[in-house]
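Assess this today:

___
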Amino acid sequence: MSNSDGDRPKKTPVNAFRASFLGRLTEREETASAGDDPALAGDWQVREHDGRYLLLRDWEQAGVHAPPCWFTSRERALLAVGALAAAARDPLFDFGAATAEGAFPIILFDGGTAPAVIGENRIFDPAFVAYLHAVEMLKRTPRALGYVGAGASGEALKIFGEVLEHQVE
């Protein structure tokens, strides 16, 4: 009996992480699925054209379609793919009114669920909730997170791997 690939064995996708580490990840209890919003980042690709690195969708062509942005370095273009994942969604977090103790509740607005206080911050800085939104969207959009990793330096990835090794139970 042949399979749909014409008798070729199915290949397991290549992954930079060790199988034992990936096994530990599957055992973790997650607060939100990494696949909650898989299409947020779209199908962005980084393509070099005339000395620039353009962000284009799979079906778009350099010189024909206008990219939403371009960069002089591939690394910055890869980071922008991750940023688009956050920019594509309404903000997930905001501050509530200050408490009597001077702390600001951090409120999560996540789709169909009622807003929920998930923490407090004693420093009111609107940029904080914007950054929190951006990293939450990277967590929920694995492809965008992969592009950000691809834009990181080798040393940053080495440290990233060390942190993961110690933080994943």
Remarks:
- The chain has one domain: 39-167.
- The longest strand covers residues 44-49.
